Amino acid sequence: xxxxxxxxxxxxxxxxHADTGACTPRQIAGACKAGTDCGSCVRKIQxxxxxxxxxxxxxxxxxxxxxxxxxxxTATAVxxxxxxxxxxxx
Length: 90
Prior knowledge:
Elements: E1 2-4, E2 9-10, H1 11-19, H2 25-32, H3 42-49, H4 62-89
């Protein structure tokens, strides 16, 4: 059965793209254009993909996030101190 009549994409084609790693309607659209014209098939594509087909995005590790934030703040403070010292020397 056709899912996308604009581009003639079938359920089987959507499933094949999903089997090769496309797990969101946007990824399906990138693979075969389904959902990029009138958009009426996007909900059908979502239904075919179901839930849980994609690995969930994990929340960032708080330790890494804290370290990166601290490093960025330190770099900003060092840069500001260098600019101030250069201005005072001039």
